[in-house]
Write a structure and sequence with these properties.
It is a single chain. With about 500 residues, the chain is α/β, with parallel strands linked by helices. It has two domains: about 150 residues, 3-Layer(aba) Sandwich (Leucine Aminopeptidase, subunit E, domain 1), CATH 3.40.220.10; about 300 residues, Aminopeptidase, CATH 3.40.630.10. It is built from 13 helices and 20 strands. Strands 7, 8, 9, 10, 11, 14, 15, 16 and 18 form a nine-stranded mixed sheet that branches. The chain has a six-stranded mixed sheet with strand order 1-6-5-2-4-3. Strands 12-13-17 form a three-stranded mixed sheet, covered by helices on one side. The longest helix has 26 residues. The structure holds ligand BES, manganese (II) ion and zinc ion (ZN). The site of ligand BES has 16 residues, from helix 10.
Amino acid sequence: MDFKHLISSAAALSSIQADALVVVIETEQRDPSLDPAVATLIDDAVKGGDLQLKAGRNVYFHRPAGLKAQRLVVAVAAPSAAGEVKTFKAALAQALSVLKGGGAKHVVVALASSAAVGAVHAEAVTAAAGDATYLYRKTKPSAGAAPLLQKLSLVCDKATAREVQQGLQRGAAIGAGVGLAREFANMPGNHCTPSFLADQARALGKSHGLSVQVLDRKAVEKLGMGAFVAVAQGSAEPLKFIVMRYDGAAKTVAPVVLVGKGITFDTGGISIKPSAEMDEMKYDMGGAASVFGTMRAIVELKPKLNLVCIVPSCDNMPSGTAVKPGDVVTSMSGQTIEILNTDAEGRLILCDALTYAERFKPAVVVDIATLTGACVIALGHHHSGLFTADDEIADTMLQASRRALDPCWRMPLDEEYDEALKSNFADMANVGGRAGGSITAARFLSRFTGKYRWAHLDIAGTAWKSGAAKGATGRPVPLLTHFVLAQQK
Ligand code: BES
Ligand code: MN
Ligand code: ZN
């Protein structure tokens, strides 16, 4: 698939050869510079009541009169000042779904005014194309053949061609990362095991020249990862502690470290979850999937920076060997933890990974986790939760999220919330009460991050969708990729 093709010329839209042309009208009034043949078709459709010049509307023409393209979709987006690029992306996604199932292999995308096309549009195009062509078939080969769309081109001006081409490049890399994250997260727990993830890390290392290290139970026990081991001990599936390194800069350059929660299935353990919708806990490795996806994007873009990805991975199961409520374990940091609820396992595997991260003398550490149901209650399914005490990192992250069309929202992280984690039997308990559950979880993690700059992303609400369209989203790979790229000096 080639979603990186650029058409930078003054040629009229009507002369473009393609299976389908998608024209996004960005303003609700027709742009005067629009190609006359396309303009005539639009006016006609408006007159006939087939198109309203309102955001979200579109119309399809087969063999449009006066155009070389075989098909034309006109899609209306909100004025760019009000809606930014996200309405362009939404209009485009709709246009692609109109074409889905049809015969178009090569689609050309244009804005009414090509001068307005920039790198952000390019990224939106590749993201929409990736979404339109992703199909989960791993355990459902009968899902059919991959969608027909093979090539996507974007029309832009010569003056901005370089910038737009870079956007397409970045977008395609992010798209590949999102696709990988979706694929891993969609795979069921009996396929996507810790060992599977370890194998995938080795494969990625081999194909892209990463150094990859996988630690087993003995090795992490030796390191003193008592919290991680406690979670894993209830499962027959062996734990894996995965470390991938991309070296794009001198050894002396402090790396960015990403830590992804890799619970390949979360039953809750002895504090077992209700059975309704428990299948969705196969997505509890969504943080790990996003870390893999980000690494996949970065190896393609080859920025001059160093990146370390850490994935602690295991199942959380109830069994005769499982950790019990009230058990006290010693983390790698030396701090003891009373495990009052075995379902708060994410923070237990992450805390040891966060301590391990110290050895890289990181410039910044970001952990990504489907950590709390409370975050879903707070923010729903649109924004990921961002927790950091560092205003500069927060700003960079929020900017990256806007740029990547992958929203996150900063949450509080005040020390007053620590009260909830007090224990009579250990340095801390692994749960607070129900109140502010995503914040107390973040406060728990913060106790292991004293030696570097740190941010935490709770993606419990954004990593997958429930219902009829059940499936992984690949978020927050776009956000993380932009954040990592922004760390390039
Ligand atoms: N993986 C879950 C969090 C989760 C819940 C993600 C629902 C997505 C949807 C996590 O391990 C968990 O079980 N958290 C508990 C914490 C509680 C016991 C303090 C939760 O949110 O209920
Ligand atoms: Mn849990
Ligand atoms: Zn979990």
